[in-house]
């Protein structure tokens, strides 16, 4: 039995070594290489001393934060009301459906909607406000990024709320809590595990959204993702690109740590 | 009975889900300070009664008064009634203290009073010192106590218990039965306990309401219900019983299994078809020529406290006997029993008519006991 299990697990270990451990190690080694291929610390030094890189990191962080907050603000109430509906699985499917589409297709669709002759501007003209520059603004980037990330927040939050036992709500009402108190003291705290997973699923990818920054934001927003892409593909500075990749991984761990599960009332172990 | 002694009263309460009737025009009154049990199989509507009192659902028809007040528009959080849920429904994100303190916090009580009350009630359920424990770290029995403490700390007029012991193992369940009964006596709060376990109901209740398919079939003390079941359903549900068809020859004489027997019931028409109940523990195994009935033993099972002996009489009726002495399979034995061990049930009798008839004839049957035909204790 255990022998069989070991045999069966070999492909997974191979996968992890080949596609997770090995690339990360390569990235680590690469980040200590200069343009000429020699061992150097200049990449790290440049990153931490360059105003451009630090501002870009901060900007990345800020946008990822805003996208996460907006997604959460939209998804939590949506998920909550979804759990109260009769055909909740059907509605959930409808809301999750857009994830089946390629992100580039969705980006092009938004270009069509937001462009100068697009649907939104036509509407604005008819009501007399006149056409505006919508595409290639920071606002449009935020809106589109939020739209794309919503399903990844909605799903874990929905599951967390949906899993809450109905008797929990009855118990709270029975003990004298009104509907709002029940939500605040029982439903919301219990659903936090879903919110945590949602934040992890949205924040980290948002740090490195690089196609959207070009297609929707017209490079007005430069995220770490854009910078990594530029370093690898345009300036061919693989060392710098790798350094930033490593930094992204570290940020990821930091986010995981901040949003880790904490149990109240249980002595630390 | 004074009206202020009545805590809950149901008047022709009906509950329908979609078109299905879960409760069929139920009326009853519960007095303050008593231990009531709703007994019935799952799906008989007993939990619906609990939910109606707690305010989790509203009746389709009829009125429910709690402390004399109409409750149709009273939400659960405004009722002085608390519930102990079947799955405990403890809040997993809070420790024991916060769970118990929940109701008091909602009432905006000050912190000192809260911690005093919580520690008092935890002492009451023998969980002193468990305040900081997480819910996941508690055993089933401990969770049960927390759930009880969480309800009691609010000092409700009435405690509703929805099959609270069903998830516990046998030993713990028996212990909790004693504790609940003791707690109820000490606090004097009305308990309404829902269960499908007849032993639980018999052990704890002042009064039992036996339910079937949305109706209350019989209400009475554990003794009443055990000794004078109204019909086959109740007799069968409350403990093991031998139920055979018989005919009432005249008052105090019944015939079944091809013979006539003296009994203590009456008030039926002559030659009326009736159901006859004799409890297995009331039958005594004797020599074949002694005793009123003769059976040939078909099977014998050792049950620990007693042997469960099953045999057939000459008419083919099956009889179960609980006996502390063993016998042999295939042997012909006599069964002895007293007139008051025979319980006679009219077919399709209403509870009112039944109670009236019992009242009329129980006085007479006690005189027959005085005459020395033997008491069954």
From TrEMBL, chain A:
CDD domains: TM_PBP2
Compartment(s) of residence: Cell membrane
Keyword Cell membrane: yes
Transmembrane region(s): 12-32, 61-83, 90-115, 135-158, 237-259
Topological type in the membrane: Multi-pass membrane protein
Domain ABC transmembrane type-1: 57-259
Top-level division of the source organism's lineage: Bacteria
Keywords: Cell membrane, Membrane, Transmembrane, Transmembrane helix, Transport
SUPFAM superfamilies given in the database record: MetI-like (SSF161098)
Biological processes annotated in GO: transmembrane transport
InterPro entries given in the database record: MetI-like, MetI-like_sf
GO terms for cellular component: plasma membrane
Region forming the signal peptide: none
Similarity comment text for this entry: Belongs to the binding-protein-dependent transport system permease family. CysTW subfamily.
Stated name of the protein: Spermidine/putrescine transport system permease protein
Automatic annotation (TrEMBL), chain B:
EC number: 7.6.2.11
Top-level taxonomic group: Bacteria
PROSITE patterns per the UniProt record, alphabetical: ABC_TRANSPORTER_1, ABC_TRANSPORTER_2
Domain ABC transporter intervals: 8-238
Keyword Chaperone: no
EC top class named in words: translocase
Record's function text: Part of the ABC transporter complex PotABCD involved in spermidine/putrescine import. Responsible for energy coupling to the transport system.
Protein name as annotated: Spermidine/putrescine import ATP-binding protein PotA
Species annotation: Alkalibacterium thalassium
Underlying gene: potA
């Amino acid at each position: 039995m255990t022998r069989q299990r070991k045999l069966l697990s070999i492909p997974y270990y191979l996968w992890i070594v080949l596609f997770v451990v090995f690339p990360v190690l390569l990235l680590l080694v690469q980040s200590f290489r200069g343009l000429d291929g020699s061992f150097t610390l200049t990449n790290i030094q440049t990153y931490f001393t360059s105003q451009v890189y630090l501002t870009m990191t901060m900007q990345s962080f800020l946008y990822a934060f805003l996208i996460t907050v907006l997604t959460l603000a939209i998804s939590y109430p949506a998920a909550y009301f979804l759990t109260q509906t009769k055909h909740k699985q059907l509605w959930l499917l409808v809301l999750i459906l857009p994830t089946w589409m390629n992100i580039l297709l969705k980006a092009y669709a938004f270009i069509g909607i937001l462009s100068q002759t697009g649907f939104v501007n036509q509407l604005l003209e008819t009501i007399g406000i006149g056409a505006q520059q919508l595409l290639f603004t920071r606002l449009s980037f935020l809106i589109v990024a939020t739209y794309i990330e919503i399903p990844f927040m909605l799903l874990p939050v929905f599951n967390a709320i949906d899993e809450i036992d109905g008797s929990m709500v009855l118990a709270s009402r029975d003990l004298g809590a009104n509907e709002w108190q029940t939500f605040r003291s029982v439903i919301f705290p219990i659903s936090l595990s879903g919110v945590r997973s949602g934040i992890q699923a949205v924040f980290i990818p948002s740090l490195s959204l690089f196609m959207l920054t070009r297609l929707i934001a017209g490079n007005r927003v430069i995220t770490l993702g854009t910078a990594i892409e530029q370093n690898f593909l345009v300036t061919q500075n693989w060392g710098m690109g790798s350094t930033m990749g490593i930094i992204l991984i570290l940020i990821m761990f930091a986010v995981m740590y901040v949003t880790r599960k904490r149990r109240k009332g249980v002595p630390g172990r | 009975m004074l009206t202020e002694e009545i805590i809950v009263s149901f008047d022709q309460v009906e509950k329908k889900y979609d078109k299905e009737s879960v409760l069929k025009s139920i009326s009853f009154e519960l007095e303050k300070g008593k231990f009531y049990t709703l007994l019935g199989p799952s799906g008989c509507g007993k939990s619906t009664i609990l939910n109606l009192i707690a305010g989790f659902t509203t009746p389709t028809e009829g009125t429910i008064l709690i402390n004399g007040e109409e409750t149709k528009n009273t939400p659960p959080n405004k009722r002085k009634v608390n519930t102990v849920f079947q799955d405990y429904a403890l809040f997993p994100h809070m420790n024991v203290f916060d769970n118990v303190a929940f109701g008091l916090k909602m009432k905006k009580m000050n912190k000192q009073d809260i911690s005093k009350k919580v520690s008092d009630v935890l002492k009451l359920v023998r969980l002193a010192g468990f305040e900081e424990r997480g819910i996941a770290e508690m055993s089933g029995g401990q969770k049960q106590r927390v759930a009880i403490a969480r309800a009691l700390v609010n000092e409700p007029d009435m405690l509703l218990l929805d099959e609270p012991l069903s998830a516990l193992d046998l030993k713990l369940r028996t212990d909790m039965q004693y504790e609940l009964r003791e707690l109820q006596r000490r606090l004097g709060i009305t308990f309404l306990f829902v269960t499908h376990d007849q032993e639980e109901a018999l052990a704890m209740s002042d009064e039992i309401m036996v339910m079937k398919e949305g109706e209350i079939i019989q209400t009475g003390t554990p003794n009443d219900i055990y000794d004078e079941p109204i019909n086959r359903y109740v007799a069968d549900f409350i403990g093991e019983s031998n139920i055979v068809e018989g005919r009432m020859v005249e008052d105090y004489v019944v015939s079944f299994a091809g013979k006539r027997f003296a009994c203590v019931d009456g008030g039926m028409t002559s030659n009326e078809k009736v159901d006859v109940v004799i409890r297995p523990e009331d039958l005594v195994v004797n020599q074949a020529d002694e005793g009123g009935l003769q059976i040939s033993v078909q099977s014998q099972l050792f049950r620990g406290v007693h042997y469960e002996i099953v045999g057939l009489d000459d008419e083919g009726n099956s009889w179960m006997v609980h006996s502390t002495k063993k016998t042999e399979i295939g042997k012909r034995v006599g069964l002895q029993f007293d007139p008051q061990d025979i319980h006679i049930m009219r077919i399709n009798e209403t509870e009112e008519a039944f109670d009236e008839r019992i009242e009329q004839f129980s006085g007479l049957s006690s005189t027959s006991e005085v005459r020395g035909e033997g008491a069954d204790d």
